[in-house]
Amino acid sequence: MDFELIREIVIPGDTKIVLLVLDGLGGLPHPTKGRTEMQTANTPNLDRLAREGICGMIYHVGLGVTPGSGPGHLALFGYDPRRYRIGRGALEAVGIDFDLGPQDVAARGNFCTVDEGGRIVDRRAGRIDTDTCARLCAELRDIEVAGAQVFVEPVREHRFLLALRGDGLSDALSETDPQREGVPPPQVRALAAGAEGTAGLVNAFVAQARERLCDHRPANMVLLRGFARRPELPSMADVFQLRAAAIAFYPMYRGLAKLVGMTALPSGPSLADSLAALREHWGQFDFFFVHYKATDSAGEDGDFERKAAKLEEVDAAIPELLGLQPDVIMVSGDHSTPSTYRAHSWHPVPFLLRSRWCQPDRAERFNELDCQAGSLGLFAATEIMPLAMAHAGRFTKYGA
């Protein structure tokens, strides 16, 4: 839906909308079980929402296109990720409240493990703890490269932020993270004329980081991806006339929410922490984005049983969420992460919406097969916000 059309028909109100994002939600049938994680999990509360609401399957960028977490969430917030492009580095920077200037270039970093031949054996260095990440960042922070000031800041676990500040920098750079193991990290290449100098600066940083980390295990090397500047996006307050809040523990998701004008609320790492934040701030906002990461982590680790268990953890929390009496609740994901695939995939993601104005469809359970039979069918994730606004009574009639 066009933002100008939304601005034309949006009306103020006091109804409450909750968007619960189960990161990496969708899955594929297990080769021996014959069922997906969603079909395996015991989720009576989510199933009840599916029966009382309307269901479908969403794609975030395009059919057959595997979305990153940034584009996936942007689409859920109503922003076309093909038009509004945000690099991972900018998301990490904003998420940790780093003062990213308009000419700065930021990248998302991973501490990783390489073998004696320089080949990657673990892209996440065993998911080192955040304190270890902070100590390693301190060792890299005084690296100097000619032509730019270097900033290295811890994010969470194995993730860190690299930011460069200087004149004439470019974010048109290739990545050093090949997104797979068994190969060495490639050097950064310029992807546009004029980016060669910045590529050289980054390669100089990586070379020095390699020397400083060579005796550390498991984090003895770095990977960089998502080179980006800070973008400017329309705010949700302007487009949807919503007082919007984000409850997300991981900095990248907090960063993305802030870039679209949400207030990032303080919250701890657990689902109980998220619900506590929701209760505490319920009266201050009328749209809440609640992020749950554990489903994605289990999928990336290839842990089918853990992903099913995490779905059950979410299900057990649904009655408490419903006790707040949201006018609209939506549950979906930013992409599929099947545990059998161990990575983001291009498969559409189940979606449900429940409000008092729903005409329930044929979906009996919240899983891939039932949602495929839902009344919404297969549709673009960018359409869920207009649906929510309509069900919340926030749109007036279009035309005479």
General description of the model:
With 400 residues, the chain is α/β, with parallel strands linked by helices. It folds into 2 domains: 242 residues, Alkaline Phosphatase, subunit A (3-Layer(aba) Sandwich), CATH 3.40.720; 138 residues, Alpha-Beta Plaits, CATH 3.30.70. The strands form 2 sheets. An 8-stranded mixed β-sheet has the order 9-8-10-1-11-12-2-13, sandwiched between helices. Strands 3, 4, 5, 6 and 7 form a 5-stranded antiparallel β-sheet that branches. It is globular, with a radius of gyration of 21 Å.
Task: Tell me the β content.
Answer: 15-25%
- The residue ranges in which pLDDT falls below 50 over 5 or more consecutive positions are none
Major sheet details: 8 strands, mixed
By CATH, the architecture of the largest domain is named: 3-Layer(aba) Sandwich
Q: State the helical fraction.
A: 25-40%
Question: Keyphrases for this structure?
Answer:
Alkaline Phosphatase, subunit A; single chain; five-stranded antiparallel sheet; 400 residues; globular; alpha/beta; 13 strands; eight-stranded mixed sheet; Alpha-Beta Plaits; 14 helices
Concise summary:
The protein is α/β, with parallel strands linked by helices. It contains 14 helices and 13 strands. It folds into 2 domains: 3-86 and 234-391, Alkaline Phosphatase, subunit A; 91-228, Alpha-Beta Plaits (2-Layer Sandwich).
Layout of secondary structure:
Elements: H1 3-9, E1 17-22, H2 37-40, H3 44-52, E2 54-59, H4 69-76, H5 88-95, E3 105-114, E4 120-122, H6 130-140, E5 149-156, E6 159-165, H7 196-213, E7 221-228, H8 236-240, E8 244-247, H9 251-259, E9 263-264, H10 271-280, E10 287-292, H11 294-300, H12 304-322, E11 328-332, E12 349-355, H13 368-372, E13 377-380, H14 384-391
Parallel strand pairs: 1-10, 1-11, 2-13, 8-9, 8-10
Antiparallel strand pairs: 2-12, 3-4, 3-6, 3-7, 5-6, 11-12
